[in-house]
Amino acid sequence: MKTVRRTIDPSAAPGRIDPARVDATTEEEIAAHQAVDEAGAMLDAAKFARRVRKRLGLSQAEFSQRIDVSLETIRNWEQGKRCPTGAAKALLKVLDKAPEAALAALDWAR
User: Fold this and answer.
1) Are 95 and 103 in contact, with CB atoms under 8 Å apart?
2) Which one of 16, 26, 75, 102 is most buried, by most CB atoms within 10 A?
3) C-beta neighbour count of 62 within 10 angstroms
């Protein structure tokens, strides 16, 4: 097999930033971009929480009882007002990948 060596011009590589444009960005613009990014992440978390619950075939009230979380918390997750974090986020991931095992473990713990 023949080895081919290539030289990459760092200034032409994709993903590089324009330092002048970055320096010209104001704190207000940065805050606005962060708000947009945060809103998108919240919507993604909301869709994920809703999808997991619907795949289990449970109402919000049933789901809240099964995972021992308040109904208001479930509603806040699904409406994008709050985002599941920590153990709740991990539980949703397990419920998504192995729902039978996760539900059995939750029932056993009662």
Assistant:
1) yes
2) 102
3) 14
CATH superfamily of the 28-108 domain: lambda repressor-like DNA-binding domains (1.10.260.40)
3 state SS for the chain:
CCCCCCCCCHHHCCCCCCHHHHHHCCHHHHHHHHHHHHHHHHHHHHHHHHHHHHHHCCCHHHHHHHCCCCHHHHHHHHHCCCCCCHHHHHHHHHHHHCHHHHHHHHHHCC
13-41 pLDDT, tens digit each: 666 778 888 889 999 999 999 888 887 87
Paired tokens of 9: 């011009």
Answer whether 47's CB lies under 8 Å from 85's CB: no
Tell me which amino acid residue 47 is.
Answer: K
Domain residue limits, the chain: 28-108
